[in-house]
Amino acid sequence: MPDATKLESNEPEMESSLHYAQLALLVACLEWLWRDRTDFFIGANLTVYFSREQLKTRDFRGPEFFLVNQTQRRPRKSWVVWEEGGQYPDLIIELLSPATAKTDRSLKKVLYQDRFRAPEYFWFSPETLEFEGYRLVGQHYDAIAPNEAGQRWSEVLGLFLGVQDETLRYFHSSGELVPTPEEAAAVAQERADRLAEQLKALGVEPEA
């Protein structure tokens, strides 16, 4: 195999600012939620290198978003399967666009099912809001049925994925939205301000 240290990602630019924003949102929310964990890697528009033939034909495949569990949390230029103990992504999310939707629904779905054996595969269109999810059952992907809110459960994440305000978001099993870092900070500040007002009402001056 080639020197894996030289294998940089070979992914094209994303389709639009909507796609960039959606990808950044998925990464930021999960990294914030799992900020105390060191045993996962999130790939954002990175190539997954998995075979010598793939390198020869330059048939590169890189999901917009993928998650690998039980691995070291550190920066990588790409995901090189043979340098990672043979690990493939545990969860993949593709962001559909007019140029990629057909491939994402067909060729990539077959690749992730048959070669990657990725336990879960989702796709979402930031433009049309099309959202589907699949779980590997035996040799094939079975569709993940949505709940009443239109959310689909991810066993890999231990979270729901669902569309809110025209974006794909994570939700706890309770239905509570997983916030962005900025949303979490705003909530924390609001709680602190409310507590300060309550203390002042009791005649207690909050500490600065």
UniProtKB/TrEMBL annotation:
Residue ranges constituting the Putative restriction endonuclease domain according to the UniProt record: 17-159
MF-aspect GO terms: endonuclease activity
The keyword Nuclease belongs to this UniProt entry's keyword annotation: yes
Presence of the UniProt keyword Nuclease in the record: yes
Keywords, alphabetical: Endonuclease, Hydrolase, Nuclease
InterPro entries found in the cross-reference section: Nuclease_put_TT1808, Restrct_endonuc-II-like, Uma2
Gene3D superfamilies reported in the protein's UniProt record: tt1808, chain A (3.90.1570.10)
Top-rank lineage group of the source organism: Bacteria
Signal peptide residue numbers: none
CDD domains xrefs: DUF820-like (cd06260)
Protein name: Uma2 family endonuclease
Source organism per UniProt: Leptolyngbya subtilissima DQ-A4
